């Protein structure tokens, strides 16, 4: 098992934590990470974009002028896609962008993302991140102290003071354990784990 230093929000080492090799020391396959991140982003798309085709546009179906003898291009009705205000050719319509990822592949990608953070020394474990009050200034001071200005912070349970203190800080996201996902792990430079969240991660990924 790998061991990492556990620090407090003042940057002082308080203990060490053991990380399971089955989660934090696995082979990394970029193709798997790419597939899962692509699916995750695709599943966020609403797929509600829609345009009016020729038959959806309101207007007369009368031929604008005769076919021959005018010297102009031949025209059909005013709803032609070539006319201003006409229908749109091959435009988007409501559709689903859903991409399915098996649970096995999703868990494997999470293990790879966590392994990558540990190998790149971008994993920080904090014993606790309690804040006496909702104060953005105090939160910013804390993340500067632990050298994580761009970070995803994972908590084991709801931490209202921390969540509300961080919501206006750019480059930082506080997330509860249940929401842990590959895209956010890779998006942020640092991954900050509250020590209590490690057991939750192990319980989720070793089952």
Give structural attributes.
single chain; 207 residues; alpha/beta; Ribosomal Protein L4, Chain: A; 6 strands; elongated
Structure explained in plain terms:
- This protein has seven helices and six strands, in the order E-E-H-H-H-E-H-E-H-E-H-E-H.
- Strands 2-1-3-6-4-5 form a six-stranded mixed beta sheet.
- The longest helix is centred in the middle third of the chain and has 17 residues, at 103-119.
- The mean pLDDT is 94.
- The protein has helices at residues 21-24, 30-44, 103-119, 136-145, 160-166, 182-187, 195-205, and strands at residues 2-7, 13-19, 123-126, 151-155, 172-176, 190-194.
- It is elongated.
- Helix content is 34%, strand content 15%.
- The chain has two domains: 2-45 and 101-205, Ribosomal Protein L4, Chain: A; 46-96, no CATH class.
- With 207 residues, the protein is an alpha/beta fold.
């Amino acid at each position: 098992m790998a061991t990492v230093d556990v620090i407090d929000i003042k940057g002082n080492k308080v203990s060490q934590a053991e990380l399971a090799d089955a989660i934090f020391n696995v082979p990394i396959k970029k193709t798997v990470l790419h597939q899962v991140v692509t699916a995750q982003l695709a599943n966020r798309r609403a797929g509600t974009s829609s345009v009016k085709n020729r038959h959806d546009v309101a207007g007369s179906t009368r031929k604008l002028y005769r076919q021959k003898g005018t010297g102009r291009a031949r025209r059909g009705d005013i709803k032609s896609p070539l006319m201003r205000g006409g229908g749109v050719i091959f435009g988007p319509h409501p559709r689903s962008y859903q991409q399915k990822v098996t649970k096995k592949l999703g868990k494997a990608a999470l293990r790879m993302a966590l392994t990558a953070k540990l190998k790149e020394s971008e994993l920080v474990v904090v014993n606790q991140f309690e804040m006496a009050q909702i104060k953005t200034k105090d939160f910013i001071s804390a993340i500067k102290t632990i050298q994580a200005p761009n970070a995803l912070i994972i908590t084991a349970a709801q931490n209202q003071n921390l969540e509300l203190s961080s919501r206006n800080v750019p480059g930082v996201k506080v997330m509860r354990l249940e929401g842990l996902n590959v895209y956010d792990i890779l998006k942020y430079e640092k991954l900050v784990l509250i020590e209590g969240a490690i057991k939750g991660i192990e319980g989720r990924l070793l089952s």
